[in-house]
Structure formats: C-alpha cells, structure tokens
Design a protein that fits this description.
By secondary structure, the chain is α/β, with parallel strands linked by helices. It contains five helices and six strands, in the order βββαβαβααβα. A hairpin with a 2-residue loop joins strand 2 and strand 3.
Length: 160
C-alpha cells in the first residue's frame, strides 16, 4: 500500500505565520497578524544559530498564546541547506513547516516593486504573501526533493 503525503493548507486565521529569508549567517523574518479587523506586523533578523532560533521561538510561543492561534507555521525557501537548522528547531517544537519556491519569490519581487534586486526583508515579506495565497509545499516533500537533487549533483560531480 502506498501512502501519499497530504499537503496541509496554510490557514492565516488559525495559524501564526512566520516567513523567513534564510542566509548562511542570518534569518530575516516577517510576521503579520490579523486581529480585531486590524493588521499588525513585525520584522527583524536573528543569527542563524540554534540558540538564537530557540530564543526567537519562545517569542513566537508568546504571540501564539496572546492571539490564540492553534499552530505556528514556519515558511522559508529551500536555500542550499542553510534553512535546515531553522526547520529542525521548528520540528522539535511541533511547528508546521512549509517551503515557498525561490522562483515564486523572485517573480513576486518583479510584480510587487518592478525590481528583482536581492533584499532580505523584502524577500521575507514576499514569502509571507505567497504563503497567504497558499502557494507552498510541505517542507518534508521539499526536503526530500532537495536531498534527491543534491545526491544527483554529487553523483554527477564524482563522475567528472
């Protein structure tokens, strides 16, 4: 019997969505909350280190309680493995995890600001917009895809 992974829908009304633009040394985050008809947002950055991520997640837990969200969802791009610390700590906290494609983020930049330049905080906001449209992939499926592609590249490099 073959079991298929069913994608979970992104639900901004019951989930605290936190989007991240990931780099080797930094995580740029963006949070947007709809509460009592108003939209509240915050953004910032933290070091891409396990201890910093754990402290940041304690703040997310507090927001979850304050605004009565059922879950917290971490959203990022698959970016060469730099996101794995973030996702591992999220998994340990039983947070939901989703990926947004880098191509969607890049095209979104052009649509939003007619600009394809790299901007970490702008990318985090765009990742949020894409997630709010529910155009994400499960991090499990994307991680498997990433590892499959990486192994294929490694095999190709060994052959050369």
């Amino acid at each position: 019997m073959k079991l298929l992974l069913k994608e979970t829908k992104v639900n901004p009304s019951s989930e605290l969505l936190v989007s991240y633009d990931v780099s080797k040394g930094e995580l740029y985050y963006y949070i947007e909350i709809l509460f009592d008809g108003n939209i509240y947002s915050t953004e910032g950055n933290i070091a891409n280190k396990v201890q910093n991520i754990k402290i940041h997640f304690l703040e997310l837990d507090e927001l979850q309680r304050k605004y009565d969200f059922k879950n917290i969802r971490v959203i990022c791009e698959p970016i060469g493995g730099y996101e794995l610390k973030l996702l591992k700590v999220a998994e340990n906290k039983n947070y939901l995890k989703s990926y947004v494609s880098s191509e969607a983020t890049n095209k979104g930049k052009i649509i939003e600001s007619n600009d394809s330049e790299k901007s970490d905080i702008k990318d985090a906001r765009l990742i949020m917009r894409i997630a709010q449209l529910d155009k994400t992939r499960s991090s499990i499926a994307a991680t498997n895809l990433f590892h499959t592609e990486s192994q294929g590249t490694q095999r190709k490099n060994k052959a050369n």
